[in-house]
Each structure stands twice: as structure tokens, then as C-alpha cells.
Amino acid sequence: MTEYVVLSAILFTIGCVGVLTRRNAIVVFMCVELMLNACNLAFVAFARQHGNLDGQITAFFVMVVAAAEVVIGLAIIMTIFRTRRSASVDDASLLKY
Amino acid sequence: MNLLSHSVLLAAEGPANAPVVSPDTGAGGVFDLLWLVIGLPLLGAVLLLGVAPFLPASLKAAVDKHGHLVGTAAAVLSFVLSLVLFVSLLGRDAEERQVGQHLWTWFETGQLSVGMDLLYDQLSALFLLLITGVGSLIHVYAIGYMEHDARRRRFFGYLNLFVAAMLTLILSANFVGLFLGWEGVGLASYLLIGFWQHKPSAAAAAKKAFVINRVGDIGLTLAIALMFATFGTTDFGGVSELASQADQGTLNALGLLLLLGACGKSAQVPLQSWLLDAMEGPTPVSALIHAATMVTAGVYLVVRSNFIYELTPLAQTTVVIVATVTLLWGAVIGCAKDDIKKALAGSTMSQIGYMMLAAGLGPVGYPFAIFHLLTHGFFKANMFLGAGSVMHGMNDDVDMRRYGALRKAMPVTFLTFAMGYLAIIGFPLFSGFWSKDRIIETALADNLVIGLLAMLGAGVTGFYMTRLMLMTFFGEKRWAEDVHPHESPRVMTVPLIVLAALSVLGGVLLLGDWIVTWLEPVTGHVEHHEPPLPALVITLMITAVVAIGVAAAWFLVGKREVPREAPQDVSFATRAARADLYGDAINDGVVVRPGAGLVSGLLTLDRGGIDGAVMGGAAAVRGVSSTLRRVQNGFVRSYALSLLGGALLVVLALLAVNLG
């Protein structure tokens, strides 16, 4: 059990550090996914330990949300890349221009 | 000499209650036209001021050209009506000489009901004759005096407005109506002092008169409010009936507040300083408003409120003190002024002091206060108009140091002025002799010190009037080069002659103590008392003191060369008198500067304290916001960091709560 939680924490931390340090929007995006899946892992692990389905159902919800997010997020990144010729999140700091 | 043997002094015995005012409202006959006395000049004012500016141009030009005739006609008709009313009043029995007229109910709120009521009794009858009579003469005079003024129509409109307001003051049967007239004359006075408003000094003088009068008006307003609170009415009838039931403190307050009002209007110390500046107005205004009528309204107020003053010895004593100070104050100022109108203004202040003094002495004094008021109305109007005539001939120069030897150039003005002069110094058998003499006698019987001070004032009067006379009409010519004095036109000299005749003959009112008997139903009956000295001795003493004053003027002014420029190396007393005895400096130091200090203190408190707190709070919020603004830098990763930080904080808080 502990192993799962530790793995989940490690994955979450990696994702978190990735979001904070990387500039490429795609990589940031992937790190976000990593954090979401770390959470899913924790949910599933705790669901199994408690012997009910609550955590598993929540994991499905998270996956649905993540899928929707990917659709919108990638579209936005595509648009930014088309206008700025760059996928760096720092370059998009002035959204009004 | 018949009059002298009748000079028996009257003195109040014990707390005598003043007669109750109870006018007969159903007199009918000519008395139903009482309102018309006010109505005529009011109509004149409305026509000249309210209607004329809206007329078509051609008609307006005609009104501008002939408007003065409308104004004069209104005043003269009002005088004729007053005369008819007076004769009718003479025809009634002494007990029935209080006639009232209810015009309409002015306002009614709660328990307060104030009617437009008129009261025509022995006192108002005399005032009516004085105001409309002298007023008419001054209207006639002003036709000549203001002939070349482009705004003559407006001037006559203001004069009519003044007469209407003054008559309202005199005829009203309650204090609220009196206050209406009181404010009306204040307004007219303001408008007329500042008539030549293109002169900054005239505009400032008008404002000064208005503001100082407001101080007095506060006293009158509070007195009226106190009357309503105490008696539930402001009618003379109601107040005179209930006054004896009020407690002493209320009566004292009423007396002192009314005195404050009287001080403002009648230029008594400490509210005296406006009168000298008021001489900026055209001379007919000085004669009508600031000598004969308006400034005596304070005396009228005190005499009319006798039912209050009879019950408050404290207020009566205060009146006497104020009056004595003023009569000397004005006389001293009159001694040093080189401006002929200001010298006369100082004299007016002093003479009103005499009237107030008599009014403060109670029922013994009231008739003499009114008597002196009437004779002063004649001779002072005469002299002011005479001074106006002199100025008219001297290109509007008012400096007596540039007059001299005018008696040959202006014989009529000189002779009429001389009549007024003899009357005011109290030359035997002239009107002022009888009236001032009686006041000093009464004062002597009441209090030796006050009496002697009043006698001293008479001597000073002799000095400054002789000085004025000598500097203006005698001595060497000291005229400016382009001045060619000439006698004034007939329209100006005829009123002078009439007023001079009245100045000489005004004493007839005292024949057989007529005025005392006439006013007795208003002022109350008092027992006759023998004076401390025989009346003849007192009269001789007064005449001797006046003679000393006249002789002093002759030796100091008449026998010497009068310098064309006022000498500067003069005594402190002269400098003080030239500066109006520092009246303005006192006002400045006691009221204006502390007031300005208070205001600037409040301003600092408002700006520094209250505004500081509000603005400081706003500035703090603004500072914090502009610092926080930097957090919104547009970098997604820094947002993510703060998100993480927030989440960590929440987790830590949860842990702290759960584990703690």
C-alpha cells in the first residue's frame, strides 16, 4: 500500500516541478497530466484499501476531466503556436497583445 | 419763559406698570385707510423698481426721466394722509386714541398666529408725521441733488422702499411685523449706502452696515422668539398684558436682547462703527436714513417696549450706560473729523445717545426721548441737506479744510444751516434747547454722574458744531482752484427753508407739556417731582457749558488759520478721534481676528485631521494595491507557483487543525 502512495507522491512532485520549471507549453501540459494521474493512482490505491468504489469512480471523473482539458488545452496551444511561432508559456505572458 | 416755570421733573414712583396696549379695531372712518400710508410708498417702489425695468424701451425711458415725480408724489400723498389721520386722532377722546387695523392673518402655525395688524396710537402718529413729512422734503430735495445721476429712477424707488419699510416698522402692532419693517429699512439702507457702488468704499460701507446690523438683528430675533416662548404671542397688546407675570430673568433677557437690536440699528456703542462709513451714500440718504428716521428706530423700539423695560431695572440701567457712552463717543469723534458728513454723523450718534439716555430713564424720559427725536429729525435733516447743498456747490468735496467763507457764496444754505446749528447746540428758544434741556434735567434727577456727563456732552456738541460752522462758512477761502461755489437750485433750498423753520419752532410741541400729556397713554403716567435744583438753574448751567464749548471752538478754530492739510503732529486724543476712537480696530481685534483665527484653525483641523484620516486611508489602500498589482505579471508559471503555495497553506492549515 505504502509503495503506491509513495509512487503517487513522487509522480505528483515530478509533475509539479515540471509545471513550475519548464517553459514549453507541451511539456507543462504533460506534467499537468502527470499530476492528474498521480492523483488517480492515489485514489485507486485508497479505494482498494478501503474496499469501496468511491475512489475508483472519482478516478474516472478525473480522467474525463483530463480528456476534456486536453482537447481545449491543445487547441489553445496550437493557436498560440500559430500566432507566435513559439510554444513557450513565458512568451504568452501578455495575453492582451 | 412760561415753559421754564412748567419745567417740573417727572420721576417714577415704585415699579409702575406700563399701560396695556389695547387698540380699538373698529374705529372706521378715515382710520380704515391706515394701510394706505404704507401702501402708497410701497406702490411707488413697486412701480419704480419692479415694473419699470420690464417696460418697453420707449416707455422705460419716460419712466427713467419722470420716475422721481412718482416717488415724490407717493411720499407727499402719504404725508397728507398722515396729517388727516393725525387730525382725526386729535378729534378723538384721549382714551380712544389707540386705533388698530387688522389687514390679514400673515401666518398661523401651531399656537403661533401672527396677523398683519396695524397700530395707530399717539406714538406712531408722531413718527408717521416725522417720517412722511421729513421724507417728503428729502424726496423733493433729492430731485435737485440727483438730477445728473443716470440712475435717478432707481434711487427714488429705493427711497420709497425705505419709507414703506420704515412705516411698517412704526405701524405694526406686533413684534414680527416690526421686524419685517426693521429688516426692510436695513435692506433699503444697504442699497442706498452702496448706491454709488462703482466706488469700492461705498460698496464696502454698505456691506459693513449690513453685517453690523445683522448682529443687532440677532438680538431682536432672539427677543421675539423668547417672547413667543414666554407669552405665546408677539402682539404689543398680549405682551404688555402678560409681561408682569414673567419671571425676572426672562424680562432681563428680553430687555437686553431688545437693547442689542436697538444698538445695531441706532449705532450705539458697541455696534456704532457702521454709521460713519454709511456717509458714503448720497447725502439725501444720510439725511433721511442716517439722521432723521432709521437710526432712531432703536429709540422707538425701547419706547415701544416700555412694558418690558418698566419691569427690568437691569436692562434700563444698561440702556442708560450704553447711551451715555455713546453720546460722549460720538461727540468726541465729531470734534476731529474734517469730512463734513462724518462730523455730522458723529453728532447724530451722540444725539441718538441723548434719546436713548432719556428712553432708559423710564416713563419720565420717554416723552423727552421722542421729543428730542422729533426736533433732531428736523435740525439734523436740515444740516445734512445743507451739507449736501455745500457739497453740490463745491464739486462734491467733503473736506471742510477746503471750504471756508461760504456764507456769501451760499446765503440760503448758510442761513438755514445756521438755524440747525443753533438748534443742535441748544441755543435758547430753538427747538434743540427745549428737548436736550429736558433730557439733561431728567438725567440729573435720576443720577448726578450721568446728568453731568450728559451736560459735558452738550458742551462738546457746542464745540464741534461751532468748529464745523466756522470751517465751512467763515474764515478765509481755502477752495480748490477749479471750484466756483454757487447757491443750489430752488428745489433744494425750499426743503432747507422748511426744515430750518421746523428747527427753530420745534419747541412748540412742549408748550404746556403737550407732548408729555399726549404720550402719557402710551408711556404711562408718573408723579411729578421737584428737581434737585431749580429748573432755571439747570438750564443756565447747560447754557453756560455750551457757551464754553462754543468759545473754545472760536479760540481754537475761528481765531486761527485753518491749514489746508490736516496737521499730523497732533495729540493722541485727536488721532484717536480721527480714527473713530479705534472702533474698527476694536471690532477687528475682538471679533474679526479671533473669528478668522477660529476659522483657519477649523480649516487646519478639517484638512489635517478629518481629510487626513480619510485621504490617508485611501492612500494606504492604493499603495498596497499597487504593490499587489505586480503579482499579476502574466507568467503562467508564477501563477502556478502561487497556486501551489496556496494549496500547501491549505494543507498545512488542515493538518494543523486536525493534529493540533
UniProtKB/TrEMBL annotation, chain A:
EC number: 7.1.1.-
Swiss-Prot/TrEMBL keywords: Cell membrane, Membrane, NAD, Oxidoreductase, Quinone, Translocase, Transmembrane, Transmembrane helix, Transport
Membrane topology term: Multi-pass membrane protein
Localization terms from the record: Cell membrane; Membrane
Catalytic reactions of this protein: a quinone + NADH + 5 H(+)(in) = a quinol + NAD(+) + 4 H(+)(out)
Cited InterPro entries: NADH_UbQ_OxRdtase_chain4L/K, NUOK/Mnh_C1-like
Top-rank EC class of the record's enzyme: translocase
Any one GO molecular function term: oxidoreductase activity
Transmembrane segments: 6-21, 26-47, 59-81
Source organism superkingdom: Bacteria
Sequence similarity: Belongs to the complex I subunit 4L family.
The protein's role, per its UniProt record: NDH-1 shuttles electrons from NADH, via FMN and iron-sulfur (Fe-S) centers, to quinones in the respiratory chain. The immediate electron acceptor for the enzyme in this species is believed to be a menaquinone. Couples the redox reaction to proton translocation (for every two electrons transferred, four hydrogen ions are translocated across the cytoplasmic membrane), and thus conserves the redox energy in a proton gradient.
PANTHER family cross-referenced by the UniProt entry: NADH DEHYDROGENASE SUBUNIT 4L-RELATED, NADH-UBIQUINONE OXIDOREDUCTASE SUBUNIT ND4L
Known partners and oligomeric status: NDH-1 is composed of 14 different subunits. Subunits NuoA, H, J, K, L, M, N constitute the membrane sector of the complex.
Name of the featured protein: NADH-quinone oxidoreductase subunit K
Organism per entry: Nocardioides hwasunensis
